[in-house]
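ok so I'm stuck.
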Amino acid sequence: VQVLESRYLAATADVAEVLELQEGSTVQRAVRVRALGGAPMSYLVTIVPEDIARQIEGKDLSQTPLLLLLEDAGVPVAEATQTISATVADAEVARALSVPAGSPLIEVNRVVRDDTGRPVEMICVLYRPEFYRFEISMRRVTAEEGRAWESKAPDRLRSL
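replied:
not stuck anymore, here's the structure
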């Protein structure tokens, strides 16, 4: 993992809304690139409220995933909401991922909450699709509205 940026700044209106902060509150923004086999595979932007970021200040984001640093600092990470979509690489991301601008990417946005429901991290990850995929197992169920698909954890994950 290569850390491209890590700094404190004022939360924009959008960031403040997601993290349930006052607009202009101080947050930490970190930008990293993860490589696989020497090739850049993902571009990560994480934003953490200042009081939580201060708990991991001085820790090496290039060696340990942010989520583990938060947990090791005593942040009781409990749940997350994630959306997955498609996007294209802008010039900055394209340079970082060694792809042409406009290349297709998988976009994952996640809001991580602690055990009280407080947002403790928001993350946007852009993946090169040749290096990353999502697998979702589903089963057919009958609901009040009729037959539908329901997602389920793959058997190999049930014991984790």
